[in-house]
Design goal:
The complex is a heterodimer of chains A (173) and B (105).
Chain A lengths: L15 E10 L5 H17 L3 E17 L2 E13 L3 H11 L3 E13 L10 H6 L7 H5 L5 H5 L9 H6 L8
Antiparallel strand pairs in A: 1-3, 1-4, 2-3
Helix pairs in contact in A: 1-2
Chain B lengths: L1 H11 L12 H4 L13 H4 L10 H4 L12 H4 L3 H16 L11
Classes of the chains: A alpha+beta (173), B mainly alpha (105).
Amino acid sequence: MAQMRLGSSRDIPGRKREYETIYILRPDITNEAVGLVNTKIRGVIEAGGGSLLKVENWGKRKLAYEVQKQMKGMYLFFSYLGTAGLVEEVERNLRLTDSVIRTYSVKMAENVDPATRTSDVTEESFAKAATPRPDEEEIATGQANLRAVFGDDDEGAFDFEEAVFGSDDDGPV
Amino acid sequence: MSMERDERIARSTGTGGSATGVATGDDRGDKKRSVGRRKPCKFCADENLKIDYKDQALLKYFITDRGKLVPRRISGNCAKHQREIAVAVQRARMIALMPFAVTGE
């Protein structure tokens, strides 16, 4: 691993910088592959002494312009704390991945006390970030697996007769 | 009494602001009046509105239909917030949430 970058003189020891990284994946990627990329980035962040604050998957969005011949992409959003040099490592790993078509990192704050910022990421929310809700095009063309999203919810089916005529065991008036 | 009031009104209307004959600024370029009271900066007025490059729904009001940034004198922003908007829009453009340019189709 290359030598970690020396921090600036503004850095207070014991405090970290807050970063946000957004990367865009190809739209034809499978959910397992998304999970793999996410896990890899999480590993990079934690190996570099950072702490993950938030992971979000914005799903497949239409891009404002064509990026690598694609008009849609899956947006992943990571918010994390880290020391100097961590974001270089994260971006390097992302750029090496084939399925990532764009990556962008922003430093949001300096000298953040790590104790004050708790992580919103649980195992469940992290796994959920690999399975976004289907976007409109998929729902319209019937490719979306709606049952996987909403579950087998037959109890909520609309009962026409009961709604119009009422049931026999209505409570006392 | 109402007659006097009507007379006063009739006398005061007519040439705007220069009844005494003194040339004022407004009078000179009557075809292009000044905008008047500047509308206040949205972000200064409301403390809770944060400018975020990820918030495309908020930022889309500050670009034209061609995708260009709206100038400050139109949007009414103060200088500080206009700079923040500009930075946010440029970042949003880099992550393809907003276009760089929109051709008129």
